[in-house]
Amino acid sequence: MTVPALAQRRTTAEATSVASARRWREDLTGWAFAAPFVILFGVFLAFPILASFILSFTSFGLRDLANPIGATFVGLKNYLDLFGDSKFWTSLLNTFYFVVVGVPLTLALGLLIANALNRGVTRFRTAFRVGYYLPVITSIVAIAVVWRFLLNPDVGLVNMLLGAVGINGPAWLADPVLAMPAIIAMAVWRNLGFAMVVFLAGLQAIPASLYEAASIDGAGRWQAFRFVTIPMLRPTILFMTVITTIGYLQLFEEPFVMTDGGPLDKTLSVTMYMYQQGFKFFHQGYASAIAYVLFVIVAFAAFLQFKFLRSDA
Amino acid sequence: MTAVSARAPALTGPTPRGGRTSSSTWSYVFLVGGLVLMVGPFLWMVLGSIKPESDFLQNPPTFLPTAPTTNNYTRLFDQLDFPRFFFNSSVIALAVTVGNLLFCPMLGYALAKLRWRGKRLIMGLVLATLMVPAGITLIPNFILMSNLGLVNTYPGLILPFLAGPFGVFLMRQFMLGVPNELLEAARIDGAHEFRIYWSVVMPIATPVLATLGILTFLGNWNSFLYPLVMAQEPQMYTLPVALATFATGQYQADHGMLMAGSVILVVPVLIVFILFQRWITEGIATTGLKG
User: What ipTM does the predicted assembly reach?
Assistant: First the structure.
């Protein structure tokens, strides 16, 4: 190798070492900012997600609590047992019922209210927003306690009002057919304010010129809604559908407080069944399998909604 | 908000059907009717909390209390340990809020504005956990905490929530909008990256921090499943756990006391919400749109 070539190499080497020192400094700064969050995130979120996957292949129970590493691996047994567990299927069906009826109702009412608010309502705007949003920020436990009394067949407000117009109200939460609809009504009542706020922001982002153009083309109110509002809101609707579905799939507090999963398991949800298995019977391996099945359903639901709501225009 | 109120008349004004008054009248009727349904249960709760027990035994029930009483509240304080539950809820929600306000903006800044190896991986991991059901981490965290001896302790109830992915998402969205020129100017002045973050970025982030702080506080004040599992001794109960335990246990028929308990659980949140409602609804709308 010639001398100039060597010198040449030295300088490039120096240049790269300067660059790599800078690179290291940048890495150090970035990680210094990231580290506190990443450590907590790793220990209490990322690691548990992995751990619960592993747990779902063990027969982890109360006696393993002191020595988690010693839990016995049982392969796919928990998942196979779930497949034959009729109570699990019931909880799954109940949860789907809650989602399939509850999500569209929540979104439709939220959109209806947002649209009414956006349409020439200028006075008391804040009062409406606050009022409709109130239940969203309220503890579900408190709401469920209050609704349990509202729906009480003997001393509840709902049946008192029904009685005033001559209807003999049923025992809502004790009726196997009516219990889930009552819980759905409460969930819709609680969550429509969230949909309203998000839809209102979406509506306000639609340029007024689009409505003017539609009106020049002779579009009526409904047509403007159908051909301007809905297409323009598509991303917001997608977002709300995904968020609400993910939330509703995790139904827990409402049946826990109002019905304890009854009557006849008609309001037993997947998360509730997981809680019972994990913390009443201490079958924590089995409960982890339930949690993972729910996780897969949540991910799959989100994927489906992205795929279908996005493509067809 | 202002842009909208300016546009609203223009939108409805030129409609040939002259629908302005009638359509907005219908909107008002619809909205007011809905508002009654939304606020009604809260009113029923507050009225119920000051009713004497005899009012609940009447059939048909009374809407207004016949003889208002504070008895339900005094029973909550004397027979049950509600001041303690209130204290527990406050400590946990405040600690978690402080943690998220410290850690989420730091990572949000690093993800939006700094160059470092591993950034994409961390961003992918954090955002991927946004939609993971809470039930997934419940059992492993319970096992972890019981091995660390932290079940029934404040750290056990606080630690897992100090760093929430939602906060990172929110803060990153905001940080992306901070102009690079601002940061470059500070860098040229020789400011260290941490100084830039603390004295240039954080001051302009105040509104987002307020949104994150309020949402985190509310979410943790209302949190139920995790504290239900982790607070097994009554002295560690949070308000929702206490209320749910009593409502499904020995006090399940005690209308007045449970209504009073609900009021205590709801009122602090109502105060926070009414004071800061603009930050909450606007913060949610922003993340909703950008999500």
Answer: 0.87
Q: In chain A, what is the greatest distance between 2 CA atoms, to the nearest angstrom?
A: 107
Closest residue of chain B to A49, computed from CA coordinates: B137
Residue A215: which domain range? 83-311
Residue A59 domain flag: no
User: What mean pLDDT is predicted for residues B126-149?
Assistant: 91
- Stretch A270-280: mean pLDDT: 95
Beta bridge partners of A61: A283
DSSP, collapsed to helix, strand or coil, labels residue A251 as coil
- Residues A66-120 have pLDDT tens digits of 888 888 899 999 999 999 999 999 999 999 999 999 999 999 999 999 988 887 6
Q: What is the tens place of the pLDDT at every residue in A100-112?
A: 999 999 999 999 9
Please give the helix or strand (H or E) that residue B269 lies within, else none.
Answer: helix B255-290
Query: If pLDDT is split at 50, 70 and 90, which confidence band does B13 have?
Result: very low
Nearest chain A CA: its distance from B33 CA (Å): 11
Do both A194 and A127 map to the same domain?
A: yes
Contact state of B225 with A55 under an 8 Å Cβ cutoff = no
pLDDT beyond 50 at B7: no
CB contact under 8 A, B133 and A295: yes
pLDDT score at A11: 67
Domains and CATH numbers, chain B: 20-69 (no CATH), 75-290 (1.10.3720.10)
pTM of this structure: 0.88
Cβ burial of B12 (10 Å; 0-12, 13-18, 19+) is middle
User: Chain B contact for A261, CB < 8 A?
Assistant: no
Query: Are residues A114 and A187 part of one domain?
Result: yes
Whether B8 and chain A come into contact, CB under 8 Å, resolves to: yes
Please tell me whether residues A41 and A126 are part of one structural domain.
no
* Structural domains in chain A (count): 2
Of B40, B194, B285, the CB nearest to A198: B285
CB contact under 8 A, B133 and A163: no
Give the DSSP letter string of A76-113.
THHHHHHHT-HHHHHHHHHHHHHHHHHHHHHHHHHHHH
**Domain CATH number, residue A204:** 1.10.3720.10
- What's the mean pLDDT when you consider all of chain B? 85
DSSP bridge pairs for A283: A61
Asked whether B251 and B258 are in contact (CB, 8 A), the reply is yes
Say how far residue B166 (Cα) sits from the centre of its chain.
12
Residues A19 and A134 grouped into a single domain: no
Interchain contact, B135 vs A271, CB within 8 Å: yes
> Taking Cα atoms as reference points, which of B151, B135, B134, B152 lies closest to residue B143?
B151
Q: What number is the average pLDDT over the span A27-49?
A: 95
